[in-house]
Amino acid sequence: MGEYDARAGELHAWLTSGLGMPVDRLTLASADASFRRYFRAHANGRSWVVMDAPPGHEDVRPYLKVSRLLEATGVHVPHVHESDIDQGFVLLEDLGSTAYLAPLARGEDVDRLYGEALEALAAIQVRGREAARELPPYDERALTRELELMPEWFCARHLRLQLGDDELALLVRTFDFLVREALAQPRVFVHRDYHSRNLMVVDDRNPGIIDFQDALEGPIGYDLVSLLKDCYIAWPRARTIGWLREYRRRIAREGLAAGASEREFLRWFDLVGVQRHLKVLGIFARLWYRDGKRGYLADLPLTLDYLRDACARYSELQAFARWLEARVVAALPAANARELALR
Fold it and tell me: Under DSSP, is residue 39 helix (H, G, I), strand (E, B) or coil?
């Protein structure tokens, strides 16, 4: 805590002495799943958001690069007013504090909000085709590394499962299949966390898009899954497929590869979703055990439900689906109850 108190003081000095801003108040706006924190600076009746990315833990250069690339597509990302790479400070446009999740959970403007989010995603994928080539690839190594979080943090650490050789072999075969399927998809600009907590409700060019610094060039279905199979809120599959169908028509009209059929596009969507939700199970568990962030445990059941549903739909995943039902489904409620009772 002392380090972060010192960081807040350094940030305040950067704003006031370095940039000459008459800061009235500096308040913590949010902290994400990394070492980054965001402050809200108030001065002369206006507000800005300031990123604090401690050097040694975080590097602001990827954020600045991806921000520039996304801004060029016309979508609404926080405009960068000033930055200090050496200190790890970035002064940003304030997009407010209303994320998509709040109105969606209340059932407000659902079709409008998703329509605008999908319109922005189409802009990123279509207009960002050249920009995507400036990003690192979402390659076999990256996809596999993410999948390996699930047996390590979710199965072994959270569920306390001891996996036998046959089970480990099944995981390897399943992961290999999912990686091959992901790599076979058309490659686009991938935000990697395009969901209701990272989309802000704004008046101008809604949505405001945040938390994009880990963008890669990867599978076309990935950000669609992040949005439409959101780990924080769920919709009936028929409604999801309706949004997906309209999205496919949109990008096809604009010349983007959209599969030979709706069925193929849906397969891309579902199977890259299995990869994402396996990764998320591992990440949510790791956030608790490594970082002490217990709130994500409550999101594990929905993530697992997405996984079960998708695996049950594809013959290549039937063995894995049976394993999930036999070994994972019943173990999760007890594991969550045990850990939530600790603090």
Answer: strand
Quote the tokens at residue 226. 């992040």
Q: In the numeric block, which tokens belong to residue 62?
A: 């990827």
Residue 218: CA count within 13 A, CB half-sphere: 29
Question: Residue 56: helix, strand or coil by DSSP?
Answer: coil
Check: CB of residue 225 under 8 Å from CB of residue 269: yes
Percent of the chain with pLDDT over 90: 89
Domains observed in the chain: 2-93 (3.30.200.20), 101-340 (3.90.1200.10)
* AA letter at 297: L
Helix 165-183, helix 262-289: angle, nearest 10: 130
pLDDT digits (tens, 9 = 90+) for 111-151: 999 999 999 999 999 999 999 999 999 999 999 999 999 99
pLDDT at 266: 98
User: DSSP letter at 283?
Assistant: H
Is the bond leading into 207 cis (omega within 30 degrees of zero)?
Answer: yes
Asked if residue 219 lies in contact with residue 142, where contact means CB atoms within 8 angstroms, the answer is: no
Coil, strand or helix: which one is 25?
Answer: strand
Q: Residue 300: which of 280, 326, 320 has the closest Cα?
A: 280
Contact 229, 240 (CB under 8 A): yes
pLDDT, tens digit, 9 for 90 and up, residues 273-321: 999 999 999 999 999 999 888 899 999 999 999 999 999 999 999 999 9
* 88 close to 54: Cβ distance less than 8 angstroms: yes
Euclidean distance between CA atoms 324 and 251, whole angstroms:
35
Closest to 331 (Cα-Cα) out of 159, 189, 142: 159
- Dist. CA 322–CA 312, nearest whole Å: 9
Residues in the chain: 343
Question: What is the spatial distance between Cα 40 and Cα 136, in angstroms, rounded to a whole number?
Answer: 31
CA atoms of 15 and 23, how far apart (whole Å): 7
Block residue for tokens 């405009």 = 79
Assess contact for 319 and 311: CB atoms under 8 A: no
Best CA proximity match to 190, nearest among 110, 255, 259, 276: 276
Backbone angles phi, psi at 157, to 5 degrees: -80, -50
